[in-house]
Amino acid sequence: MKHFPATFVRLPRDTEGRRAAFYLAAEEYIADRLPEGSYFLTWQIGPTVVMGRNQVLHLEVDVDFCRREGIDIIRRRSGGGAIFADERNIMTSLITEDAPVEVLFGEYAEAVAQALRQMGAPAIVSGRNDTMLEGGGKVCGNAFYKKTNRCIAHGTMLYDTNPRLMEGALHPDVSKLERKGIKSVRNRVSLLKDHLPFGVDELRQQLRLRLCDRSITLTDADVHEIEQLEQRYYVPDYFYGITVHSDVVRSARIPGCGQFEICFRLSGSLVADVALHGDFFDLGQAQERFTQALVGQAFTPESMQRAILEHHPERSVRGLSETVLVNLICS
Question: Which of 67, 160, 219, 266 is geometrically suited to a Cys-Cys bond with 88, CB 3.0 to 4.6 A?
């Protein structure tokens, strides 16, 4: 595999158990500051909901439940859906040079699945590059985003979990569950503890041994800079998101793309603003691309179609085609 074996990134011991935002910032720091190459990082966190870049907080997370139970909430910079994780899960990160998304994302998911198979878990890659167990549920959900000339892919590996906290913290998309005949969030996942002969600490060590052949250790000075980056994840406008109060909403569950919703605010018959929501994967500045393409255009089928064909904002969303976007908006 092109990006494996990777360089394992060690953090100082006193950084264990930080909030998720610290490790998300560490991914960014590695992408911005370390030399060209592939870097792999593992981390563990206390009970936390990590939501996708384009999700609406109150529609995905029971904020009051999380506050009562001491569950942290963080918004990551990658797309995809909200996940619940705690110290019985392992978070994995791959930071590498810019590459075609499908190739990189597929390689990352397959490398993790292969490592799990070597340990004894019957792991396969399925759907949008999630890791499943044969005949079972999901054990690792993955997401990615691009940052300048680097790519960041990361995932949550379920060794064990607290089903009460998971179900209470997350508001699942009911349409997903009903369509698949599934009753709750807990039923959609499997646990690696049921398939591996060792604990979560050994699993973390095994991942490093199987996916990396060298290591680098960050310094206290590196940690200080990471902590500065971390603060951006707590800015209210970023954490809560900025939702356009919409005159028109177009929404659909699109195979290969995910839930995609575009909200239009109109000034007369002109598009004054747009906002994207959903669990889709952003290939790079999707919100900006759609804003540039559609704001200022007349909200008519011909005008919308012309703007899409000219600017191709759909290319910033994984799995979204020109035809599907035109049909969605102009229907």
Answer: 160
> Which among 124, 102, 126 has a CA at the least distance from the CA of 113?
124
Whole-angstrom CA distances from 95 to 28, 71, 98, 99 are 9, 27, 9, 11
At 85-110, the pLDDT tens digits run: 999 999 999 999 988 888 888 899 99
Instruction: Read off the pTM.
Output: 0.85
Distance separating alpha carbons of residues 45 and 39, to the nearest angstrom: 20
For 107-128, what is each residue's pLDDT tens digit?
Answer: 999 999 999 999 999 999 987 7
Provide the CATH topology of domain 6-240.
Answer: BirA Bifunctional Protein; domain 2 (3.30.930)
Contacts of residues 286-294 at CB distance under 8 Å and 24 or more positions apart, as own/partner, are 286/54, 286/313, 286/316, 286/317, 287/54, 289/313, 289/315, 289/316, 290/262, 290/316, 294/264
